[in-house]
């Protein structure tokens, strides 16, 4: 069971007509590392083709995967799905050298959406938001903290933040919300 | 801020996503116990520190996590090229346009 600081309860944290920041419920997460030869068998077990372009995503039902590096993927799933994925990928142990690590307790997800969402992210994000196409995701840096930023829509973003960095990132985002609201 | 092209991500990204990791193409001696103290000291500590194009390692820490090599001009801070780790040293004369 993930232990989160008591003030980090899933729900809406800030809401204005053009900007909303909310903490999402906890999800299952895995880091999957394997060599390129293993992508096909691993994809068969997981139910989708593993994308090989960095930043590309695939989804099947509630499962989602993003390619973070040449040999690294992040798999997100429902809590109940965790055991299924673990057992499924374990069947590859003999044939495909790999590492599957359960990261579920490590990260929280913040949803940022609304017409000013992209503007809010530029507060701590040095790269050009337009370089991340809709439907892709990137591991990148947000005010010094490593985050995975998912772009779900033109103005809808998700940030996966390490639990211990979450208070810092959320404070910054909420300060930004107040600044934007103040004009 | 410097803009650095990651050869693995194939994107040009802000310096804040990267960390510097020292001079590139320094091979560890195959059998350290056979190396003289002076040669071992040189391997550990002695670097070229050039004024001009410098072969160096960088890591895309907040990204794909990969180490790669770059050629950067230490005077102008301009990146001449970046290439994947393990690839041979690019020809400096071609990069600086002095090959003609």
UniProtKB/TrEMBL annotation, chain A:
It comes from Roseibium aestuarii. Transmembrane segments: none annotated. Coiled coil: none annotated. This is Sarcosine oxidase subunit gamma. It comes from the Bacteria. Pfam families: SoxG (PF04268).
UniProtKB/TrEMBL annotation, chain B:
NCBIfam families: soxD. This is Sarcosine oxidase subunit delta. It comes from Roseibium aestuarii.
């Amino acid at each position: 069971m993930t232990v989160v600081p008591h003030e980090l309860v899933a729900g809406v944290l800030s809401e204005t007509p053009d900007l909303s920041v909310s903490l999402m419920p906890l999800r299952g997460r895995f880091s999957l590392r394997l060599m390129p030869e293993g992508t096909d068998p691993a994809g068969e077990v997981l139910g989708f083709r593993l994308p090989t372009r960095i930043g590309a995503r695939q989804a099947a039902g509630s499962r989602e995967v993003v390619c973070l590096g040449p040999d690294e993927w992040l798999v997100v799933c429902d809590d109940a799905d965790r055991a299924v994925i673990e057992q499924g990928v374990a069947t590859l142990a003999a044939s495909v050298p790999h590492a599957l690590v359960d990261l579920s307790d490590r990260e929280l997800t913040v949803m940022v959406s609304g017409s000013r969402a992209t503007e809010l992210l530029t507060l701590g994000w040095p790269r050009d938001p337009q370089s991340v196409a809709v439907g892709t995701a990137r591991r990148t840096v947000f005010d010094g903290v490593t985050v995975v930023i998912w772009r779900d829509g033109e103005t809808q973003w998700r940030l996966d933040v390490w639990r211990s960095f979450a208070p810092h990132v959320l404070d910054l985002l909420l300060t930004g919300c107040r600044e934007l609201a103040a004009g | 801020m410097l803009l650095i092209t990651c050869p693995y991500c194939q994107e040009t990204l802000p310096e804040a996503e990267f960390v510097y990791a020292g001079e590139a193409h320094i091979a560890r001696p195959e059998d350290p116990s056979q190396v003289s103290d002076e040669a071992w000291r040189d391997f550990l500590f002695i670097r070229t520190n050039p004024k001009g194009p410098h072969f160096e390692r960088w890591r895309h820490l907040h990204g794909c996590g990969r180490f790669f090599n770059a050629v950067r001009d230490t005077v102008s801070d301009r990146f001449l090229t970046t290439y994947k780790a393990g690839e041979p040293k690019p020809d400096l004369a071609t990069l600086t346009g002095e090959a003609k």
